[in-house]
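User: Quick sanity check before I run a bigger batch. Here is a single chain. Can you write out its predicted 3D structure?
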Amino acid sequence: MTDFDKTKQAFHLPQGVTYLDGNSLGPMPKAAKARVANMMADEWSEMLITGWNKAGWYVQPRKVGDRIARLIGAGPGQVVMGDTLSIKVFQAVSAARAMRPQRRVILSDSGNFPSDLYVAEGLARAVDAELRVVAPEEVAGAIDDTVAVLMITEVDYRTGRRHDMKALTQTAHTAGALTVWDLAHSAGAVDVDLLGCDADFAVGCTYKYLNGGPGAPAFIWTHPRHADAAQPILQGWMGHRAPFAFDQSYQPAPGVERMRVGTPPVIALTALDAALDVWDDVSMPDLRARSIELTQAFIAGVEEHCPDLVLNSPRDPAKRGSQVSFRHPQGYAVMQALIAQGVIGDFRAPDVLRFGFAPLYVDLDDVAHAVQIMAMILKDKSWDREEFHERASVT
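Assistant: Done. Predicted structure follows.
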């Protein structure tokens, strides 16, 4: 049984703050500060460039990838770290598209994160393909023999709607297509089972529920059956079979290692590695059960005490990730008023208040407090102040 009281103590949570925005940026694990400081003092300072060998910097992407693999239903040696999520999306989709050369369609849905759609749109232009976008509920019916790649974010960033990975992957395979799953709002939040669902490729970021810090590196997973066949368009030095042979032509490394591109961000990977220590004693079924408990309690509390808000997430927890969103015509101002009272969520245009429930550090007391503050703000209309309507650069 996972001790969530213990995991909460592993994080620095500012006094007086109820943090419900871990689906955008996780809080800092207490161990990360010392781990990064020690790396800089003992490794970078003293070892200089020899740290790539002596401190194991070069193999960090594989070692950290193995730690994430357990959390997403993957096996050892199947996940590698590095670069940004957009780059990993590009690599995965381009590799999958190349494996179905007679097909032109990259299929996605309108609930996908815009950045993924931007990447796919640019790729489609470059390789004479077509990006086809349908409503989330229309995805299964849109998979036909023209589709090369199904590119889906498992949990919708605005509504929290969760796609059925296993069912959609099976439908795609029956039609002869491959799947690319974005786990940005899944990894560390829900019980992902990539091998069990027979997915083809998956990518994800680590600064949300995995708490790796702002700009933490992304990960990419390739099913073992594709690992030595996938040929991404973006080929980098670190994905070469022998980087330090300095060959003029590219020879892909075996397995998922070919998905490495640039020099690993060692400091960021060190912080992420410290963050992953918290997961060593966490059961993913326990995590999912606690997530459902928290989100259900929040929905019940808001609907009882905040009648001005309209639920924007699936009511059935089986169809929802670990986030809940509500709509309000003045959603931005309401969220700013909440943040001013120490309850931190975020806003997504045009009118969505979004709340993430990370079981590692959010508990039922946090849920009750957030509902209480929200009810107060809506009742006295304290959100309707000039400073709360002024849009910041990041919402």
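The chain has two domains: 4-30+282-389, 32-280.

User: Great, the batch can go ahead then.
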